[in-house]
Amino acid sequence: MVFKTRNEIHPDYAYICCEGEFDQERIPKLLSKAFDLAKRSGRKAALVDIRELHGPPPTAFDRFFIAELIAKLNLTQGRGIFLAIVGNVPIIDPKRFGETSATNRGALIKVFTKIDNATTWLKFNVENKRK
Predict the structure, then answer these.
(1) Which residue among 11, 85, 105, 126 has its CA within the 20 to 30 Å range from the CA of 37?
(2) CA distances for 59 relative to 2, 11, 17, angstroms
(3) Domain span at 56
(4) How many domains does the chain have?
């Protein structure tokens, strides 16, 4: 199964771009890497771009697991780091079940299908947090 990532540091956020086959088992390491990259680079935000992932979408149970993981990582490893995830339906749930579950558990997350919306949200939150 091919799965590649590329990292970049932007002025307001750390960026991780993924491509290849969606694999539920790789998600914990990917999310941990996003929070770690943001923290190590001194950023208050991370953007995970999964638009180039393909394959069967996660189940509702998988989405709940991912949401719980995001909340846990946000509270332990990435305290105060905003996380945006940008992807395509059906990998991204159009009803945002995972996003809702994660935010209900205290995570600072929003899910998008357009990267411009994700970067705008991150920049807004980072700027308002600085004040």
Answers:
(1) 105
(2) 21, 35, 22
(3) 3-130
(4) 1
Rounded Cα–Cα distance for residues 18 and 79 (Å): 23
pLDDT beneath 70, residues of the chain: 1, 130-131
pTM of the model: 0.94
Nearest C-alpha neighbor of 127 from the set 44, 46, 10, 49: 44
Kindly provide the b/e burial profile for residues 68-101, where b requires at least 16 CB atoms within 10 angstroms of the residue's own CB. Answer: ebbbbbbeeebeebbbbbbbeeebbbeebbbbeb
Q: What is the CATH number of the domain that holds 45?
A: 3.30.750.24
Decide if 74 contacts 106 (C-beta within 8 A). Answer: yes
